[in-house]
């Protein structure tokens, strides 16, 4: 069954660009569009999407206020907030409004599709690029550091190298970037990522990053 999406974006070129990502992913269907918050609230009531891709910076009411109003009417809908910049206050307000995800717009296409699937299944997602920002400013997400002995005690199924790779996955690095950072081959980096996915019992690298953040592995 297709995941039905309402796209809310006031900038026409950005809206067209986001729509252009979906033809190659038949498991998703954009069933409606809105160009402002008020229209988003009305269309959500009318077409009942599974997921709303919601721009935060809308011209009338904000995407955050629209999210709150939509979920007050129908809390079965999942809202993914889209933003072009990192803001601690917007992140906090988005989560308080009931949003299931906070995503920076430069996310890769495959990563975005994975986030949509995860959110549809009930997961929450905070873009990894936001985590250092939040840690530095308010310790909203605590950073847990493990000594080698503590690491083995808490995560004996991951090797130390896999733990290093996992931290880079959380930072949003691709296999080629991981390979360059750790001075290993891309093939080896890919193998480490595959092992991590298997050991954490998740479906992909996005879910591995979410689980790592949720359980304080990085």
Could you explain how this protein is built, in words?
The protein is α/β, with parallel strands linked by helices and 218 residues long. The protein has two domains: 135 residues, Rossmann fold; 67 residues, Arc Repressor Mutant, subunit A (Orthogonal Bundle). Helix content is 50%, strand content 14%. It has a six-stranded parallel β-sheet, with helices on both faces. α4 links the parallel β4 and β5. The radius of gyration is 18 Å and the shape is elongated. The relative contact order is 0.10.
What pattern of helices and strands is seen along the backbone? Answer: EHEHEHEHEHEHHHHHH
Specify the oligomeric state: single chain
Structure summary, number of beta strands:
6
Largest sheet entry: 6 strands, parallel
Provide a count of the helices. Answer: 11
Global geometry: elongated
CATH topology of the largest domain: Rossmann fold
Distance between termini? 35 Å
For this structure, what is the CATH homologous superfamily of the largest domain?
Response regulator
CATH class of the largest domain: Alpha Beta
Low-confidence stretches: 137-154
């Amino acid at each position: 069954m297709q995941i039905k999406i309402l796209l809310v974006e006031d900038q026409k070129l950005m809206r067209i660009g986001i729509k252009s990502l979906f033809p190659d992913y038949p498991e998703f269907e954009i069933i409606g569009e809105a160009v402002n918050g008020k229209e988003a609230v009305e269309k959500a009531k009318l077409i009942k999407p599974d997921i709303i891709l919601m721009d935060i910076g809308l011209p009338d009411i904000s995407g955050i206020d629209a999210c709150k109003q939509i979920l007050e009417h129908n809390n079965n809908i999942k809202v993914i907030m889209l933003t072009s910049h990192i803001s601690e206050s917007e992140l906090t307000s988005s989560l308080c409004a009931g949003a299931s995800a906070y995503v920076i717009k430069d996310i890769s296409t495959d990563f975005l599709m994975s986030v949509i699937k995860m959110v549809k299944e009930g997961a929450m997602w905070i873009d990894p690029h936001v985590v250092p920002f939040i840690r530095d400013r308010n310790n909203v997400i605590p950073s847990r550091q493990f000594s080698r002995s503590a690491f083995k005690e808490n995560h004996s199924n991951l090797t130390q190298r896999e733990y290093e790779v996992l931290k880079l996955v959380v930072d949003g690095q691709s296999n080629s970037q991981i390979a360059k950072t750790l001075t290993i081959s891309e093939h080896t980096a890919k193998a480490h990522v595959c092992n991590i996915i298997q050991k954490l019992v998740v479906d992909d690298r996005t879910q591995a990053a979410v689980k790592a953040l949720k359980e304080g592995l990085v």
